[in-house]
Design brief:
heterodimer, A: 7-stranded mixed sheet, 7 strands, globular, B: mainly alpha, Amino acid/polyamine transporter I
């Protein structure tokens, strides 16, 4: 699996209701030491309810500049949340989502926790 | 320690690619011969704009070590950044085609040998420099030799124009014999050329090649403040030469050879020789800049190792991308297409590439995770936002203006 298999993919809850789209992946560096750094581990997905366009990193911090770019993006992505990887029940197979009308989606477990996306 | 002059070579070379590449050399003379200096204000607006964004991209490169297309990919995500990559590559490769053709035309001026015979020679020479020559030496030699274009500024003084008359032309107005649409088409084309996206790709990657760190922020600023205003000044000088000699005579410019007519009148053979050296160096420098930008953007988007500071064997796909771009350039030129006309169509792709390039730079320059204490101040943010709006308006206006005026007819 590569990052593009998850980015831009719709997100559903276990009842099939649409929650939004995956707009970013959150990694932590706590694995075994690699060539330069600790190996990265997928920590969770950033899900935005209204758009699949990029949040441009504003979800990580409280940066308010440059005006008006930052406020517009914050408004557009309001309600974005972080869901931890263990709360993800199913991800689309890499071959899914090729055709139009295909309902490839990330499905979350019942009772998943939506976290604030800020660091 | 490097001398002050060589420290700013990167800025000068970057500005040559923006203001004095083959397409712009001719456009400047066309503008001067048709509109006098009534479009000089656009160059000034463009110089300020590219200074703002080149400063930000150089600052990000120096502080975080990341070049512009790396942050574009990171902030926009693969899909939108991919769209920008396609548009930016189109602009860059179209310009590279014009530059290889431009070197050939400039060598024809020097040798009287047909330019089509020079095309493979020019491409081979560009490739050899990309493959063998150290970045530092490359930027110093082309930057310094490109300064021979100062001959155009010298020629303005030697021609001894009526300064009052010349100054009166600086007022923005549409000349009686031209339509407003054509005036604004050239205004947008000059502005787009000044702010063309490969300048920041090259400048920021060049900062990484020159191993800039936080200590080099002053160097970055100096490069910006010397390079781009100098490029703009030479661009206006070319227009002024054409305005003094060609405009009153009613001569319409359509080729590179006509650039030297005012020079010959002002300074004779010697000045023409100096200017031809400058033309070859400028087109050669712009060819290097666009070829390298092709490799930089593609490698930074796809996560390949890149840079001339690595030996080719350690950045094979980066070098392969540049070789392919040069092969495409030679192939297109062999169809006998007019190399200068090719660049007119890059306006269409700039409409996509410009906003998608400058927005991520502005965002990252505000991110304290990357920039620490060096985040943008209020003035830079205000200028950046204002220019982003101007860019979008100009980019949207460019396409209907190009169609309505048949690219300046």
């Amino acid at each position: 699996m590569i990052a593009s298999d998850l980015l831009d993919v719709p997100v559903h809850d276990d009842a099939g209701a649409q929650l939004g789209w995956v707009v970013d992946l959150r990694f932590v560096l706590d694995g075994a030491p690699d060539a330069y750094l600790a190996r990265a581990r997928l920590h969770g997905l950033v899900v935005s309810p209204r758009t699949r366009t990029s949040f441009m990193g504003f979800e990580r911090s409280s940066v308010r500049h440059p005006w008006p770019v930052a406020p517009i993006l914050r408004w557009w992505h309001r309600g974005a949340f972080l869901v931890h990887w263990p709360d993800v029940a199913r991800v689309p197979h890499p071959d899914e989502g090729a055709g139009p009308g295909d309902d490839a989606a990330v499905v979350l477990r019942a009772g998943y926790t939506a976290y604030e996306p800020g660091l | 320690m490097k001398s002050r002059l060589l420290t700013v070579a990167l800025g000068i070379l970057t500005a040559i690619g923006g203001f004095l590449d083959a397409g712009d050399l001719v456009t400047n003379a066309v503008v001067g011969s048709r509109f006098g200096l009534s479009l000089a204000w656009v160059v000034v607006v463009g110089v300020v704009g590219i200074c703002v964004f080149a400063h930000m991209s150089g600052k990000v490169a120096a502080v975080s070590g990341r070049a512009t297309f790396e942050i574009i990919r990171e902030r926009l995500g693969p899909t939108t950044a991919g769209l920008n990559l396609a548009a930016s590559l189109a602009v860059t490769v179209l310009t590279l085609i014009a530059e290889v053709g431009g070197i050939a035309l400039a060598l024809q001026l020097a040798s009287s040998v047909d330019h089509r015979l020079w095309v493979p020679v020019a491409a081979l020479a560009v490739w050899l420099v990309l493959w063998r020559v150290k970045f530092n030496l490359m930027e110093n030699v082309t930057g310094l030799l490109g300064l021979a274009l100062v001959g155009f500024a010298v020629a303005v003084f030697l021609l001894g124009p009526d300064w009052g008359d010349l100054a009166a032309q600086l007022v923005p107005q549409v000349p009686v014999q031209e339509s407003a649409a054509v005036y604004w088409y050239f205004a947008v084309a000059l502005f787009g050329a000044a702010m063309t996206p490969y300048e920041v790709f090259f400048f920021s990657s060049g900062g990484v090649e020159d191993r800039w760190t936080v200590k080099d922020l002053a160097t970055s600023r100096l490069n910006v403040l010397v390079g781009f205003p100098l490029g703009g000044l030479l661009s206006i000088s070319i227009a002024a030469c054409a305005a003094i000699v060609l405009l009153p005579a009613g001569i319409q410019v359509d080729s590179m050879s006509q650039l030297t007519l005012p020079i010959a009148e002002a300074g004779g053979t010697l000045l023409v020789a100096v200017v031809i050296v400058g033309l070859v160096a400028a087109t050669f420098g712009a060819a290097l800049e666009t070829a390298l930008s092709t490799g930089y953007t593609l490698s930074q988007y796809l996560g390949w190792s890149w840079g001339k500071f690595r030996r080719p064997v350690h950045a094979p796909r980066f070098h392969l991308a540049m070789i392919l771009a040069l092969v495409v350039a030679v192939g297109v030129l062999m169809t006998n297409v007019d190399p200068i006309a090719v660049t007119e169509y890059s306006v269409v792709f700039s409409a996509v590439a410009l906003p998608l390039t400058y927005l991520p730079i502005l965002v990252v320059a505000n991110d304290p995770e990357y920039m620490g204490e060096h985040v943008n101040g209020r003035v830079m943010n205000l200028l950046g936002t204002v220019y982003l709006v101007i860019l979008v308006v100009a980019a949207l206006a460019a396409i209907p203006l190009m169609i309505a005026t048949e690219a300046g007819g």
